[in-house]
Design brief:
heterodimer, A: 280 residues, mainly alpha, MetI-like fold, two-stranded antiparallel ribbon, 79% helix, flat, B: 252 residues, globular
C-alpha cells in the first residue's frame, strides 16, 4: 500500500518542509537523474558486451521490441485483454466484498457465517485454487476472472467490515434521532464514514488482482501480457520478457496512480486529503 | 477453559456446516465427483499423501523452506533500507527512485525473468520471493519510521541522545508495531508467490504437487493439497500474530 495514514506532526516530515527552494528543486529532480543514469548504464553495459546479451539485452533492443509490439497491434491487444480480466475481476470482488462486509456489520447471522471463512480465507494463498478453478470453469476468461475476484474479495470484505463497524456510534444515533431511516443511515452516514477504509481495502486488493491475472495467464495461456511473457521466456527471447515487465509495470503504475487520484477526489471532504501525505 | 473451547467451536461452526454440506452434496451425487470429490475421500487422500515420504510433508516443507529463505532475506534487507531511507536523506534520495519504479510492478511478472536468469531450482524461486516481499517491507518500514511521533524525538534530543542512539533506542522501537504490520502483508504476499512460482514451473513444492495431481486427474489429492496449503497459510498468519504480541508486549 503506497498511501499510509498521514500524520500531521512528523518531525522527519517537517524537516523537509523547512528546506530552501534550491534544495527542494534538487529533491524533485534527483530521482529522474538517478533513473536516467541507471538506464544509460544499462544501455552502455549491454552495448559494450559487459553482460551476456541473452541475460540482459540492451535497453534499445527492448524498446525496439516494445515498438514492434506496438505497431503490430499485439501490445494493445494483450494489454486490453489483461486489463479486461483484471478490471472485471476487481469489480466483481469490490461488489461482493463491500456487500458482504456491510452485511457482516448489520446482520448477526451473516457475521457468524463469514467471520471464520474470512479469517481463514484472508491469509491463505488463493492462487493454490487455480487448478480447481480451471477444473470448474474451464481454461478461458471465466476461470481467470473468477480467480482474480476470489483472490481480491477477502481483503475487501475485511476492510469494509472493520470500516463500517468502526463508524462513530454518535453519528448514527444523531442521524436516527433526526429521523433518518435505516437505508438513509447506511448510505448517508455509514458508507461515507467508512469510505476511507473501504478505499484502502480496494487499494490493497488492486495490486493483488494484477499479480493473480498474470499468474493465470502464465498458467493457462489465452493471450494477455502474462501469456506473452511466458511464451517469450519459453523461446528464450529475453527482450520479450523485459518488454513485458516494462509494459505491465507501466500499466500497474497508471492503475495505482489512478486509484490514488480517485481516492483524493472521493475523499475531498475528508481531513486526510488536506494534510501532507507520507507517500512513497 | 471449557468455555473457551465452546466459544472457539461456535466461532468456527460455519466451517463444520460447510464441510457437512460438501459431504452431503457429493454423497448424494448432486454434483459430479469429477468436479468435486467427497470430503471424506479428500481427507483419506490427504492422510495417504501425508504418510507418503514423497507426499505432502516433503512438498510442503520445500515450499516453506523457499518462502522462509526469501522472506527472511527481505525482512533483514528491507527493514534496514526502509529505516535508513527515512533517517538519512542521501539514502532516501538514492533509493526512492528505485522504489517508485518497481513498487507498482506486479511481482509475478518477474517469474519468467527469474526462470531465464537463474533457472528452475530453488535459487530462482527464492529470488522471486525475496524481490516480491522486499518492496512492501521497505515501504512500510519507511512510512513507519517517518511517522514516529515528533514529541518522542524532541524529548530524547533534549535529554542529550546522539543521532545514533535516537535512531536505535527511540525511533526504531516506536516504529516497530507498524513495521511488523508490514511483515504480515509481506507474509501473505510471499505465500502467493511461492505457490504461483511453483504452479507455473517447478519440480517440487506444494504448488507443483497441486498442479501435478490436478493434471493427472487425481482431484482428491489436488483438494488435499489445497486444504494443506490453506492450513499452512492460516497457521503461519496466526503464529505470526502471536509472535507479534509477544514482541510488542511492552505496548499497552
Amino acid at each position: 500500500m503506497a498511501t499510509v495514514a498521514p500524520r500531521a506532526a512528523s518531525a522527519l516530515g517537517q524537516r523537509r518542509e523547512s528546506r530552501p527552494a534550491l534544495a527542494r528543486a534538487f529533491d524533485t529532480f534527483a530521482p529522474y537523474v538517478i533513473i536516467g543514469v541507471l538506464l544509460i548504464a544499462w544501455e552502455v553495459a549491454a552495448q559494450e558486451k559487459l553482460v551476456i546479451p541473452f541475460l540482459l539485452p540492451a535497453l534499445s533492443v527492448v524498446l525496439e521490441r516494445i515498438g514492434t509490439d506496438l505497431t503490430s497491434g499485439a501490445l494493445a491487444y494483450n494489454i486490453g485483454i489483461t486489463l479486461y480480466r483484471t478490471v472485471v475481476g476487481f469489480a466483481l470482488a469490490a461488489m461482493i466484498g463491500v456487500s458482504i462486509g456491510v452485511l457482516m456489520t448489520r446482520v448477526v447471522s451473516v457475521r457468524w457465517f463469514f467471520d471464520p471463512l474470512v479469517s481463514i480465507g484472508l491469509p491463505m494463498p488463493k492462487v493454490a485454487l487455480l487448478p480447481v478453478f480451471m477444473l470448474w470453469f474451464g481454461l478461458f476468461d471465466a476461470s481467470k476472472i473468477l480467480m482474480v475476484a476470489f483472490s481480491a474479495c477477502f481483503q475487501i470484505i475485511i476492510t469494509t467490515w472493520h470500516g463500517t463497524q468502526g463508524v462513530d456510534k454518535e453519528l448514527i444515533w444523531s442521524a436516527r434521532s433526526l429521523g433518518a431511516k435505516d437505508r438513509e443511515v447506511l448510505w448517508e452516514i455509514v458508507m461515507p464514514a467508512a469510505m476511507p477504509q473501504i478505499l484502502t481495502g480496494l487499494q490493497i486488493a488492486m495490486p493483488v488482482c494484477l499479480i493473480v491475472v498474470l499468474v493465470t495467464e502464465m498458467q493457462m495461456g489465452g493471450r494477455g501480457l502474462g501469456d506473452a511473457m511466458l511464451v517469450a521466456a519459453r523461446y528464450a527471447q529475453t527482450p520479450g520478457v523485459f518488454a513485458g515487465i516494462i509494459e505491465i509495470g507501466t500499466v500497474g503504475f497508471c492503475i495505482i496512480k489512478g486509484m490514488e487520484y480517485l481516492r483524493k477526489r472521493l475523499l475531498v471532504w475528508h481531513q486526510e486529503t488536506m494534510r501532507e501525505e507520507t507517500t512513497v | 477453559m471449557t468455555h473457551k473451547i465452546i466459544a472457539t467451536l461456535w466461532r468456527y461452526s460455519p466451517l463444520l456446516l460447510l464441510a457437512a454440506v460438501w459431504e452431503g452434496v457429493t454423497q448424494a451425487h448432486l454434483v459430479s465427483q469429477y468436479a468435486l470429490p467427497t470430503l471424506s475421500g479428500v481427507l483419506t487422500s490427504m492422510w495417504t499423501l501425508a504418510i507418503d515420504p514423497d507426499g505432502l510433508v516433503y512438498h510442503t516443507s520445500r515450499s516453506i523452506m523457499r518462502g522462509a529463505a526469501g522472506l527472511g532475506a527481505a525482512v533483514v534487507l528491507g527493514t534496514t533500507a526502509g529505516v535508513l531511507m527515512a533517517w538519512y536523506r542521501p539514502v532516501r534520495l538514492l533509493l526512492k527512485p528505485f522504489i517508485q519504479m518497481f513498487y507498482p510492478l506486479p511481482k509475478s511478472a518477474l517469474i519468467p525473468l527469474t526462470i531465464m536468469w537463474i533457472g528452475l531450482g530453488d535459487p530462482s524461486k527464492i529470488t522471486l520471493i525475496f524481490i516480491g516481499s522486499l518492496l512492501p517491507i521497505v515501504v512500510s518500514s519507511f512510512n513507519a519510521t517517518r511517522g514516529v511521533d515528533s514529541v518522542l524525538i524532541w524529548s530524547a534530543r533534549g535529554m542529550g541522545a546522539t543521532d545514533r542512539e535516537l535512531l536505535w533506542e527511540v525511533v526504531v522501537p516506536a516504529a516497530l508495531p507498524e513495521i511488523m504490520n508490514g511483515y504480515r502483508v509481506a507474509l501473505a504476499l510471499c505465500f502467493i508467490l511461492v505457490v504461483a512460482g511453483e504452479l507455473i514451473i517447478a519440480n517440487n513444492g506444494i504448488g507443483f504437487l497441486i498442479n501435478f495431481l490436478g493434471e493427472g486427474g487425481d482431484y482428491k489429492g489436488m483438494f488435499a493439497g489445497v486444504i494443506t496449503i490453506s492450513l499452512v497459510g492460516f497457521l503461519a498468519d496466526r503464529g505470526y500474530i502471536m509472535l507479534m504480541r509477544r514482541i510488542l508486549i511492552w505496548r499497552e
